[in-house]
Inverse folding.
């Protein structure tokens, strides 16, 4: 799902159709700059910090942001292949301002501290593929356990509320595996333009997620659906059979990667729709 040809084709197609503007995917794409997200109404004051999380394989550099007072349900965010960067800090902070304690991780900590993409979302995908390919189901699930245990050790995280997890692009299947790794703690899973959610293997992410008790939100890019039109049906059938509440929707006009504000195909109207559905999921599942 994460390949440079798709990004370039999407960029041309959606600019030509008017779905996104040149400014939306062509401006402020540097590693240190991201477009501003809409402000949160009645935002709570938050505290943010860079933190180190010990895992079985080393120390992961992460970003932790939470309400400045009280406790809140924890959320674990898995970024896309471009990794932990200003755009995902913005996204984590915005979520914290709605009342969650949010940990945004660097999934590539074994190799390199963030930022791991030198030019942010403008970094050529082939440069990043070795980072993604070095991860596997085992590393993802051991990391998930370590990150959730770390969240549970924080005073700002409510222990009487379940934890949510969300992933983007390659982070989608990792979020599914997170629920399987810590099924007693994860109450909500969200995937945005996730790639590889459904495979023909017995350990496919969607089959692992079906064994949990989490509520799910799966937001699928229109062009991903064109490439794999049956995936949404498999997801619906699998989660219905498992009696798991699941909202699965194809986002019309949205290209793969449309949610992060620094993406080359950022689609603000559809990203805001996805944001609204995420908040609805967490309001139900993490209350």
């Amino acid at each position: 799902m994460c390949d440079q040809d798709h990004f370039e084709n999407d960029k041309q197609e959606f600019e030509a159709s008017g779905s996104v503007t040149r400014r939306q995917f062509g401006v402020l794409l540097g590693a240190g700059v991201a477009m501003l997200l809409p402000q949160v109404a009645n935002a709570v004051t938050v505290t943010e910090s860079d933190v180190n999380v010990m895992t079985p394989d080393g120390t992961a550099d992460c970003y932790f942001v939470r309400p400045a007072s009280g406790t809140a349900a924890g959320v674990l965010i898995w970024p896309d292949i471009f990794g932990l960067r200003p755009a995902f800090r913005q996204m984590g902070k915005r979520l914290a301002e709605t009342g969650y304690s949010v940990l945004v991780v660097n999934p590539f900590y074994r190799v390199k501290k963030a930022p791991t993409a030198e030019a942010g979302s403008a970094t050529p995908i082939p440069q990043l593929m070795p980072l993604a390919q070095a991860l596997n189901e085992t590393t993802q699930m051991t990391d998930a356990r370590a990150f959730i245990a770390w969240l549970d050790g924080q005073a700002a995280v409510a222990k009487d509320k379940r934890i949510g997890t969300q992933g983007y692009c390659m982070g989608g299947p990792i979020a599914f595996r997170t629920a399987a790794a810590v099924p007693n703690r994860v109450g909500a899973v969200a995937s945005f333009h996730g790639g590889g959610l459904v495979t023909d293997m017995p350990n496919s992410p969607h089959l692992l997620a079906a064994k949990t008790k989490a509520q799910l939100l799966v937001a699928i890019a229109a062009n991903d659906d064109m490439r794999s039109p049956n995936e949404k049906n498999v997801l619906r059938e699998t989660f219905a059979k498992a009696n798991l509440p699941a909202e699965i929707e194809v986002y019309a006009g949205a290209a793969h990667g449309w949610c992060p504000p620094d993406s080359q195909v950022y689609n603000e109207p559809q990203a805001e729709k996805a944001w609204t559905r995420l908040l609805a999921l967490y309001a139900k599942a993490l209350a």
Observations:
- Strands lie at 46-55, 58-67, 74-78, 101-105, 163-168, 186-192, 215-221, 246-251.
- The longest strand covers residues 46-55.
- Residues 59 and 194 are 26 Å apart (CA to CA).
- DSSP finds ten helices and eight strands in the chain.
